[in-house]
Amino acid sequence: MAANSVNVKTENTNTARSIGTRRGRLSDQIARGIFFVCAVLVVVIIFGVFVFLGINGLQMFKDPAARNFFTSSSWDPSADSPSYGALGFILGSVVTTLLSIIIVAPIGFGMALYMTEMAPRWVNALLRPLLEVFTGVPSVVIGFLGLVVLVPWIANIAAPIAPSAANAGNGWAAATLILVIMILPTVVSVSIDALRAVPDSVREASLALGSTRWQMMKDAVLPAAATGLGTAIVLGMTRAIGEALAVSMVLGGDIHLPAKLLTPSVLFQPNINITNAIVLYFSEASGTERNGYFMLGFVLLIISFLFICVSRYIASRSVYK
Amino acid sequence: MEKQSQRPAYLAQNEVEINPLNKTQVENLPEVSKEAQHMGSFDPTKTLKTDATTKIDVQHTNFFYGAKQALYDVSLPIRDRQVTALIGPSGCGKSTFLRTLNRMNDLVPGARVEGLANFDGFNIYDPKTDVVLLRQRIGMVFQRANTFPKSIFENVAYGLKVQGKPQNVIKERVEKSLHGAALWDEVKDRLNTSALGLSGGQQQRLCIARALAVEPEVLLMDEPCSALDPIATLKIEEMITELVKDYTIVIVTHNMQQASRVSHFTGFFLSGKLVEVASTADIFEHPHHKETEDYISGRFG
Amino acid sequence: MEKQSQRPAYLAQNEVEINPLNKTQVENLPEVSKEAQHMGSFDPTKTLKTDATTKIDVQHTNFFYGAKQALYDVSLPIRDRQVTALIGPSGCGKSTFLRTLNRMNDLVPGARVEGLANFDGFNIYDPKTDVVLLRQRIGMVFQRANTFPKSIFENVAYGLKVQGKPQNVIKERVEKSLHGAALWDEVKDRLNTSALGLSGGQQQRLCIARALAVEPEVLLMDEPCSALDPIATLKIEEMITELVKDYTIVIVTHNMQQASRVSHFTGFFLSGKLVEVASTADIFEHPHHKETEDYISGRFG
Amino acid sequence: MSAQQQISTSVESDERQRLLSLERLTQRLHLKNNIASGILALITLLGALLFILIVIKVLWDGIPYLINPDFYGSTGTGTVGQQIFNTLYLLILSEIILVPIALAAAIYLVEYARQGPLVTVIHFAAETLAGVPSLVLGLFGYLVFATVLHLGLTRLTGTLTLLCLNFPVALRLFEDALTSVAREQREGGLALGSTKWHMIRTVVLPSSLPGIITGIVLSAGKVIAEAAALIFTMGSSNPSNVYTLNPMISTDNLTIHIWYLKTVGAGTIPDNVANAVSAGSAALLIIILLVINIGSRSIGRLIQRKVMAA
Amino acid sequence: GSSTGGSTPSTSTPTVAAKTSSINCATGNLATGGSTALGPLVQDAAKAYQAACSGATITTQLTGSGAGLKGAHDGSLNIGSSDNFVSLTKNPEYKDLTDNQVAVVIFSVIISKDVTGVTNLTSAQIKDIYTGKVTNWKQVGGPDLAITVISRASGSGTRNTFEKYILATPETISGANHITAKSSGDVASNVGSKSGAIAYDTIDFATKHSLTTVSIDGAAPTQDNVKTNTYKFWNIEHMYTKGDATGLAKSFIDYVKSADAASLRQKDGFMDLSAVSADAIAAKTPAAAK
Ligand SMILES: Nc1ncnc2c1ncn2[C@@H]1O[C@H](COP(=O)(O)OP(=O)(O)OP(=O)(O)O)[C@@H](O)[C@H]1O
Ligand SMILES: Nc1ncnc2c1ncn2[C@@H]1O[C@H](COP(=O)(O)OP(=O)(O)OP(=O)(O)O)[C@@H](O)[C@H]1O
Ligand SMILES: [Mg+2]
Ligand SMILES: [Mg+2]
Ligand SMILES: O=P([O-])([O-])[O-]
């Protein structure tokens, strides 16, 4: 008898419970569906970016004049027989990116090493927030400073070797320095993370063997952080190659690559790169030329995609996560 | 388990407690008993030299992590070419003490040491002591193998390269140290493969080889076997009894059987104080302090 | 320590080992002995009902974490309004088994269960089982108190709000559950303060109160006392013996004394297999398997 | 006896010899160490100086305008009242769209999705999207939102483009915030018979609030700083009445304005005015970013304390 | 769907007093853009229009004539302004654009202050400069100073007018001494700051920046010379719409052309279409557009 009544009571509760939870389950299902759509949205967007830029960009090759896109550096869409050689723009982006990373890597690694391994606490307390602010600093602010400070300064210094004293401040040199300022904080921050990821036991192991701190950094910490530092380089380059407005403000070039590429003076004259071309000419271009700028954007997209793949690959080989 | 009878009575009595071996595991591994027989072949009491000279004479050491005191007036002589074991419950300051001896605690921000540790005529704690030189003379092996992500050879050669030794010396010493750490046979064919591919026990011995390569006079070991399985543990213990012919060894251990198996002297720490230090046999058989007795009989810790 | 004599002989014999109490700590806390006297006031053998109906009938359960099998053909009846203890060395699958019972393992990616667990006429493992309803009927208490960062009241009321209970019912039930978890007196004046301000033991009891509030039929507890000090442990054990009058309880424990103190039935797991299940007294006094005997006599684990 | 003594002395002198050479060696090592340390310190000093000088330069040039109330007006040249309003408008509109979507996506990834190819693909997509240059996203936004969807150059087009830009960033930060909530907390909720979504709302979201706030604030920083993605999608000029919530008009913001004044708009107002406005806006932006960076952490901590002391 | 704001439509001849009431107000959002030469007039007119008609929101993207046409064509702009007629040979897809002529613009060749002694250049000399044959001012009668050549991008209506009526050939200048300015204003500001610079820009920007203009082939850039087409470097300003202008777009274009906006046109240096001789207009109008 007693057992029976207990059973009945239990059943009642269960019915009440299941009614209560059914509503919950429905909202659970709906919520789940919405979340799923939002998560997939990210895939849709990147897919859309590839598809839309790809389709519009590749359409330029319907125009036979565009066949020299990857083989010529002569970009002259308004000529009687238009030419769409983009090598000049690509070269500009590659040169400024490589130059800036060559400058940034030693400085960035040096700063990161100093900040993680040697610096007194207050130095980090001061520099970390500063670096973070600069990681997100608007590129136009740097571009503005570049225009009012850097360009006149370079013009002064480089005037004697530049082909045109009036335009000596503009060009790859200014763009490279702008990029250095733009990517140094990123490279330092990622490098610091990489160095921090090296466990202290590695440092202890080195020091306990009677190494100096410098030997510890050079022989134990840096090799152990190699993959992370590699990621820092690649991320820096991703940022550099895509940087648009700041670079465009100081480049000063249009569509022409300088005639003499293999002299130092090439750095001190108005010059070109991919982003500058897009910023300057995209909005008024039509037809094949317009698709050409989409194609340039697509090239940038592919390059940054490759960079991301490389950084993922490097990161996947890291010993310490 | 016929070995038990050879051990002091107090060990047998607490056998179940302080034996870290997982029986099931041991049963799956028939090699153990073979190795275990080997284990009895050395007996620290036979190599005990109660008159050994003092290699490091630690006196009245106080240690602070910031405001927190971790060592209270510790005085302890470390005898030349003898194994000194440090035991005590978790957090009693064993590691802290060990790490004062090669100034490893310098790395801890806010750490501060007071007192005297006379090593070859100078005070280890002196701020002016050249810690690089000190650490070349006093090597250290850590609780968890901290192998570098480099090849086996590079790991052992590390300290030698630090000293800028020529290549031929490095080659020879690497082999010698790997022999010394009883690892040569296992790795001789793969010296250039990554050290991270070794098992835990092998990595720990690699770290020992690495420490031996620079030919220190003193070797500090902080629970070198705590992360290892019984077989690896036995290998390392055996190795220690070999090494002590040439090196002064200080070992921290949680495992009292290990202390009794390998050490000549034992110091017992409790809450940052050195309760008692004496020959290992004395400590385990005739402890002078109630706390020591309680601890070794397993009533706490 | 006069309590020892009341315990079975095998416990006294291994007292040093399986007693988790840290002696130094206990000595600092004079209240213990007072509480400890209380401890003897219940004896599960007195409330043991060998003929209790089976509340959950687990049969031939296999469990896999991805490719790795964690449970092998486990069959075990869980008796109504009795305490069933699950013991075994670390990693043997106790938690895994417990978590199959309220489908908590659903959260582990790649986890898969096979077999039958008959609960009130349906199979717990059935994919069609409404896990939300199931978990309202089979509550769970975890090893580490997972109090929500909310007020004490909100914590206990959580499950009731889930069910959309009216405010007055919630109020009443919160108080009742806090009484049930022996926490009411300690928190009645601060119900609206953050639960994170409670001590570890109080938080654990709060979690128990939270589980009780939804009036489950079965209460699963995974090492509920392992992070607690002796006094808090005793309080919870006492509470369990009270709760079992109304609830079916399954408790995982590392502490064999605890199993013997609170449980009516004990299952011994080893490497994912249920070696033996029987009344607690039988398991501890007349184990049928060599492994069980080895384990409870402390030879491994 | 004497032989023994001799041996011991020779051993001793050997030992001395070894020690002496070791000492010489370490002297050399110390020297190298000091040189290397000096170089590292110098590099850091120069790097730090570069950044500090930039900040000082920007503030020095800009603050005289910032403390002038006319600077924030909206009539006449050299005022940025409109741009500040547009920046805020864009910030709020894009956060309103971004936060629910990114949070929902993060919830899906952290709470619902099973580890598998889909999650890998989503993460890879997010990482790739985060690496796409903002100018390229600007082209994409122009193509899809302005042209294909016929939204034209409007605030809405700009906001949608910013969504693409910020989505991966916010997603990552929100995921971090959610994963920082202990598994035990989730299990606690579920074990009480709550449905997953209810558990997330009542347990996970409140606990991860500090991290979510940090994510919002940091993505806000990106919205404020962005210009390249907007010049093709939102435009670079203002109607007479920008003080409207109308999303279908084209406006600029502070960063676009700086760019505009020094490029396309150069010469439309006197150079010294353009420089003054740019300097003032740059200083304002730097100050906002400093505040955001320092603030996001303290806000997070504050919320944390609030949540924990419920 | 045009609607007439609050003001009364009026067909009477506007007077100064009835200035605002004569605007046929429409409401909505209007995106205009394109020619930077026409920019000042569009911006001023937009401001005046919005002041008079509260329901209208007008923005002006100054991105060049080419961008204006493209924006009008692809719909991102409602009105695309251009200094040129659409060239259907070059952009056949722009046949959907409707021409609304609003004013006449006078361009000029300008040189920087340090180029002393040059007041006139022949179109041949200008051509030599813009094709890179002449690189120093002394070759054209000026000081010994390198010429910094400033151009506009190829979509610029100013540049197209310059190429068509002065050079009679496309520019081919490139190299370190050459830069491309981003807008009419940018041209003026560059000529103001670079030594030895030469450029082409509207007379309005030249005046506002007090830059030196030169006569071309002996004709000075004056309204009188334009009226008779003696001075060739001028053009008709257009506001193109996709299809016929309606609603706010129509109302705004009408306003820009209207007598109401005459003072604005004058202020920004533009001439009324009616002020220029029919022959001159015909000379600028391509056959296809007639
Ligand atoms: N870096 C540190 N900062 C502050 N306190 C520390 C630090 N390292 C250790 N301690 C404290 O110092 C005391 C001694 O620690 P130590 O590591 O020496 O103990 P131990 O005997 O080695 O313990 P175990 O057996 O657990 O390794 C402990 O209370 C510990 O909490
Ligand atoms: N999420 C998981 N994924 C894969 N394997 C797991 C997972 N959780 C547990 N395991 C494995 O399953 C086996 C059983 O684990 P379980 O946690 O059930 O053991 P346990 O008896 O509760 O141990 P303990 O006493 O340490 O809590 C162990 O080998 C463990 O490593
Ligand atoms: Mg230790
Ligand atoms: Mg468990
Ligand atoms: O007026 P434009 O900018 O096209 O020269």
Automatic annotation (TrEMBL), chain A:
Membrane topology: Multi-pass membrane protein
Gene Ontology cellular-component terms listed: plasma membrane
Entry similarity comment: Belongs to the binding-protein-dependent transport system permease family. CysTW subfamily.
Major subcellular location class: membrane
InterPro entries: MetI-like (IPR000515), MetI-like_sf (IPR035906), Phosphate_PstC (IPR011864), Phosphate_Transport_Permease (IPR051124)
Key word Ligase present: no
A molecular function (GO) term: phosphate transmembrane transporter activity
Annotated keywords: Cell membrane, Membrane, Phosphate transport, Transmembrane, Transmembrane helix, Transport
Entry-linked CDD domains: TM_PBP2
Transmembrane segments: 33-55, 84-109, 130-155, 175-199, 220-241, 293-315
GO terms, biological process: phosphate ion transport
Residue stretches making up the ABC transmembrane type-1 domain: 90-311
Purpose of the protein: Part of the binding-protein-dependent transport system for phosphate; probably responsible for the translocation of the substrate across the membrane.
Presence of keyword tRNA processing: no
The protein's name in its UniProt record: Phosphate transport system permease protein
Localization annotation: Cell membrane
Automatic annotation (TrEMBL), chains B, C:
A GO CC annotation given for this chain: membrane
Highest taxon of source: Bacteria
SUPFAM superfamilies: P-loop containing nucleoside triphosphate hydrolases
Chain ranges of the ABC transporter domain: 56-296
Protein's UniProt keywords contain Transport: yes
Example of a GO MF term: phosphate transmembrane transporter activity
PROSITE patterns: ABC_TRANSPORTER_1, ABC_TRANSPORTER_2
InterPro entries assigned: AAA+_ATPase, ABC_transporter-like_ATP-bd, ABC_transporter-like_CS, P-loop_NTPase, PstB-like
GO biological process, one term: phosphate ion transmembrane transport
UniProt xrefs under SMART domains: AAA
Keywords annotated in UniProt: ATP-binding, Nucleotide-binding, Transport
PANTHER family linked: ABC TRANSPORTER I FAMILY MEMBER 17 (PTHR43423)
Protein name: Phosphate import ATP-binding protein PstB
Automatic annotation (TrEMBL), chain D:
CDD domains cross-referenced by the UniProt entry: TM_PBP2
Chief location: membrane
Coiled-coil ranges (or none): none
Pfam family, one: BPD_transp_1
Gene Ontology molecular function terms on file: phosphate transmembrane transporter activity
Gene Ontology annotations of biological process type: phosphate ion transmembrane transport
Membrane-topology annotation of the record: Multi-pass membrane protein
Alphabetical keyword list: Cell membrane, Membrane, Transmembrane, Transmembrane helix, Transport
A Gene Ontology term for the protein's cellular component: plasma membrane
Xref: SUPFAM superfamilies: MetI-like
Cell compartments where the protein resides: Cell membrane
Membrane-spanning residues: 35-60, 88-110, 122-144, 209-232, 276-296
Span of domain ABC transmembrane type-1: 84-295
Family as reported in the entry's similarity comment: Belongs to the binding-protein-dependent transport system permease family. CysTW subfamily.
Protein known as: Phosphate transport system permease protein PstA
